[in-house]
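Lab manual, section 2.4: Encoding a predicted structure.

Procedure: take the sequence of the chain (405 residues), apply the prediction step described in section 2.3, and record the output as structure tokens. A sample record is shown.
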Amino acid sequence: MSRLRQPTKRIGWLLFALVGVGGVAFTMTAPRSAPAEQPPQKRRTVAPATTSKPSSQQGVHLVLPPLKPKREVLSTPPRRWTWVKIPESRCGYGSSTGMAVNPSPGAKTLLIMLQGGGACWKRYGVIGGCFSRIRFVFSLRGVNQKTFRRSWRIRRVLRSFVLQRNRAYNPFANAHYAFIPYCTGDLHAGNTTLSFRKNQTIRFHGHRNMKAFLARLVPTFPKVKRVILAGVSAGGVGASLNWQLVQNAFGPKVRVDLLNDSGLPLKPDNKRWRQWLSAWNLHLPEGCKRCKDSMDHFMGHYRTTMFRRGRKAAFVSFRRDRIIRTFLGMFTQSLRFQRQMYSMLNTLHQDKNAHYFIQPGYSHVMLFRHNAHRIRSSRGVTFATWLRRFANDDPAWSSHRPPAM
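Recorded output:
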């Protein structure tokens, strides 16, 4: 009987783990067709890495017109969330989206939060399918003002203590806030439109959306001296991918730091990484020649660019995170995942500008946990204290992790 139960248990955990990278993304619906924005100028056939022969998974990349984001200053009431529609932005199925801002008069810091929520990179499939009846990605259909107000998934992000001004232990209580929704399924870094048969089109426009958002955020907050680019899960990976882009947008006089919760840039399964690069036309950190080989080269690149310029990175994770390791293709290999994580963390010891806060267990996203500010490291430092030291450039800011198992 135990032999029969074990596969069932494993499948059950797989379904639980895949309820969104970010814990927000289980969707069951009929596949949706979406018309292309405009006829393609050129087509390039893309054969998926999962098969050696043409199949229904085969798609073509459509050549995108040049993006000309509108640069404008947003006028919104202070200390409250306001949804702003960005007409040139696009979600996976073609609808426009936007972002939300929450200004704080006189603030010199801007916290940009990138939402997580799954990923897709092929037409069908339990894992990675963009048009499957069961999809593990947050909202390809779109995020708009109504969604922003009513979605429990978005409320969960906004209730994180780092976005609550009335929490005495929030080190960013007086900062400007910006919320970037996730509806492209491409880690906020795709740069293509992929067309399949039967008029099914998916827009991986995460990178283009980020450029459109920054075209508003930079002129809206011209007096900030520091930007915290934060992200959870898929948004954490997206923050790592877009760190240099955001720094370049704000310019050298503004310091852009990274806060990555549960999206550490570890090495994915080789096959999966090739699928992502092919499907999303992924925008990689500028000037990083080795980044196309794997995400674990990001830190080497940032060590010689961002860290050397005094920019800081804060990494947060659970030691054997069940969800993110499934996303990376290591669902049944928790020990391998942990070894990769600790190997990456060990490279940070030589950098005073990068530290981590790791907790034991299989959970996902620390910022969303009840009483997250009270979580303690093995040395008795609370998560809120660790973040405050990061925010205040406290020399006591350091790395914390449990012993390897």
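Check your result against the sample. Residues 16-391 form a domain with the Rossmann fold fold (CATH 3.40.50).
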